[in-house]
Design a protein that fits this description.
7 helices; globular; mainly alpha; 199 residues
């Protein structure tokens, strides 16, 4: 039964996004906002722990699980941009965040064209991006609309761009979906293994 834990966490992450739709528009510093922050924290925590759990459980790493994890991450990102971002971002920041989300969708389109399925990778850089994204509302609560927060925001946007370039590059240069590849630097090794397996 343990092998189902990572997928269960992915499903829960999607479910944790539902309260954000209803509570976040009231603001993060209201009672409703506190409820939203709690569910947002649970969603982020599930994202942080599901990967390590999957790697430690026999049979825990599957293509379905990787796809579900990518879908859950996308749902959280979309909900965050639509419902959380307008509360904490300026208009300019919100436009930039939407562009970053479009870039994420573009990566999925590229993978579908290449592999006939949507492939969201789980490289170290993308995991770092996800953790940084998760932390952003908490940085806003701690720093407010300050220079430090603006620097953190624009640094994050640079990380998003670089992470998406890495993901698109990997998807374009692999002959099969590389759900569990850890870095663009492992691209050659992945392709060599695929070539050897096909011979």
């Amino acid at each position: 039964m343990l092998k189902y834990v990572p997928n269960t966490l992915g499903i829960l992450r999607i479910m944790f996004c539902i309260p954000l739709i209803f509570f976040t528009p009231f603001g993060l510093t209201t009672t409703a906002g506190i409820v939203a922050v709690v569910f947002y924290s649970l969603a982020g925590l599930s994202d942080i722990i599901d990967g390590p759990i999957a790697r430690r459980i026999e049979g825990g790493q599957t293509e379905f699980g990787a796809a579900l994890d990518g879908l859950a991450d996308m749902v959280l990102a979309v909900v965050a941009v639509i419902f959380i971002a307008p509360v904490i971002f300026t208009t300019t920041q919100l436009i930039i965040a939407i562009c970053a989300l479009v870039l994420r969708f573009s990566s999925g389109i590229v993978s579908y064209i290449k592999h006939k399925q949507v492939v969201f990778l789980h490289t170290y850089f993308i995991k770092f991006m996800g953790t940084y994204l998760f932390a952003l509302p908490f940085l806003w609560l701690a720093l407010g609309d300050s220079l430090a927060f603006n620097i953190a925001f624009f640094t994050l946007m640079c990380v998003v761009i670089l992470a998406m370039i890495e993901e698109i590059t990997i998807n374009l240069n692999t002959k099969e979906p590389a759900f569990n590849i850890k870095s663009i630097f492992a691209l050659k090794q992945f392709n060599n293994q695929h070539k050897a397996g096909g011979e």
